[in-house]
Amino acid sequence: MKAEQMEQARQLLQEIYGYDSFRPGQEQVIQQVLERIDTLAVMPTGGGKSLCYQLPALLLEGVTLVISPLISLMKDQVDALRALGIKGSYINSTLARQDVTDRLNAVSAGDIDLLYVAPERLGDERLRRALMQAGLAFVAVDEAHCLSQWGHDFRPSYKEIPAWIYSFQPAPSVLALTATATPSVAEELRNAFDIAPDHSVETGFARDNLTFHVVKGADKATYIDQYVKRRQQEAGIVYTATRKEAEALQKSLQRKGVQVGLYHGGLSEEERRKNQEDFLYDECQVMVATNAFGMGINKSNVRFVIHASMPGSVEAYYQEAGRAGRDGAPAECLLLFSAQDVRTQRFFIEQSDAPQDRIEALYGMLQDMTGYCHTDGCLVENVLSYFGEQDVSACGRCGNCTREGERMDRTEDAQKVLSCVLRMRENYGKTMIAQVLTGSRNQKVLQFKLHTVSTYGLMKGTSAKIVQGFIEFLLAEQYVRLTLDEFPKVKVTPKGAEVLRGERRVEQFIEASRPAEVSDKLFEVLRACRKRLAQEEGLPPFMIFSDKTLRDMCDKQPHSMDAMLDVSGIGQMKLEKYGEAFLEALQQEESTAN
């Protein structure tokens, strides 16, 4: 029966989704779910997590319950399911009471394969009765990292999910899914759902279609304006740390003629819904938003994500940046860094009413994020190592790997900084160390008699800002570390001690930037065809075909309906609905070119 179900799953993969094979990890997860084995799936954004519960839901008896943190995910996913002919529904606070009743009745009658709910909805006794009437196939917990107190996006309501699941007799099997889980977070999730270590499926965090860059010292508004102009026909997201920054940037781009949307928690629900739909349906090119936007936004053709401000953790950054290129086609992720970003994130932490151990964890996450911005090594290697991947090699594609310039020996400067840290008894922060090294005569330096230490003025003639930037580099490369408290102090690491003893050299690279890619003409023709069809059907364009499918169509340029089936992402159902329209577009473009 197991082999028979997996064969059915492969057939559905081809017939409904148009793919010939599973992505890494999908087949193992689906097989375990079909065998009703509690499973943890850790896959990067765009790795195909939703397929891991959608396919089993079509093969198992009963309704599959999907617990999701944001209502935007529910609507997008259900719209996508319906476009594929799958019976999906959702229940959340946007619905009128009668609509909720109608949907619960449909669940009870067995007319729904997948039902999406928020964790806060689990206490609804009507929901419980409907699920018991229909029978629970299994429970999928999406964005499962929200359960972990040590994760970047902890939500208290998630802590109640395990007890709710185990209140059923017999308890349904569980599939916990996340794109961002450090080893400690993954262990916490396994413990919460009693998942055996060998039932975890971790495919790795690498996203080979994404290119990462960190840009320092740029005028952010000007840089973003110029970048968006170069990518005029492509969808992108720009993240900011604050609502005020988002509004200013949105107005700036709007004045330049960019079709730009705005999304943050201060807007009304109706404004957020409209702006989100405009972005999903390609009615606006760029969405400027705070981190209130994005989790679960199933838009596959986002070609760039720009962070105008540094987020507070590597997990948050990688999740937000990972919203680019969900279709597998090339996409770009840029982070525009300034020292003010660190102060902003520290302010957010200081305003938190979280317990002290959580506060310390947040400071630690911020240090790791700041380290990413200042690392001299491969950006991808830095992220993958953070998530616990071993033996990671340089990606060869990121801004650090591809820059032009020269590597400078900074051993002597590093020894000056490390000596100063020790002479100051490892009892001060980055700013004070930089001021002592540059010979500052400010009040605190004199008050604490730091002008008397032997390293005072060793780097006189260099600005304190530049020296502090060099200290950030030493932090990123782990020659020094910061204590985890409100006023972090710089400490020398064993690696830094080796530099002081002359046993290790310190080298730093002088960076350069890269130009952006340009779309080809045929791709734009197919995009226009896709948008026309989407408008006729009232769907977001990416639900017709993903950018990756259009790229593959450009490469293969099929001349018949049968040849269309060789294009990645085109199954029999979509071929019958859209094949002729795209064949006509291809033929017209070919005749124009000839």
From TrEMBL:
State if Nucleotide-binding is listed as a keyword.
yes
Gene Ontology BP annotations: DNA recombination; DNA repair; DNA replication; SOS response
The UniProt keywords, alphabetically, are: ATP-binding, DNA damage, DNA recombination, DNA repair, DNA-binding, Helicase, Hydrolase, Isomerase, Metal-binding, Nucleotide-binding, Zinc
What cofactors does this protein use?
Mg(2+); Zn(2+)
Report if keyword Metal-binding is assigned: yes
PROSITE patterns from the UniProt entry: HELICASE_ATP_BIND_1, HELICASE_CTER, HRDC
Quote the InterPro entries the UniProt record gives.
DEAD/DEAH_box_helicase_dom (IPR011545), DNA_helicase_ATP-dep_RecQ (IPR004589), DNA_helicase_ATP-dep_RecQ_bac (IPR006293), Helicase_ATP-bd (IPR014001), Helicase_C-like (IPR001650), HRDC-like_sf (IPR010997), HRDC_dom (IPR002121), HRDC_dom_sf (IPR044876)
The record's EC number reads 5.6.2.4
Q: Which reaction does it catalyse?
A: Couples ATP hydrolysis with the unwinding of duplex DNA by translocating in the 3'-5' direction
Domain Helicase C-terminal residue range list: 223-370
What family is this? Belongs to the helicase family. RecQ subfamily.
Protein name per the record: DNA helicase RecQ
Species of the source: Aureibacillus halotolerans
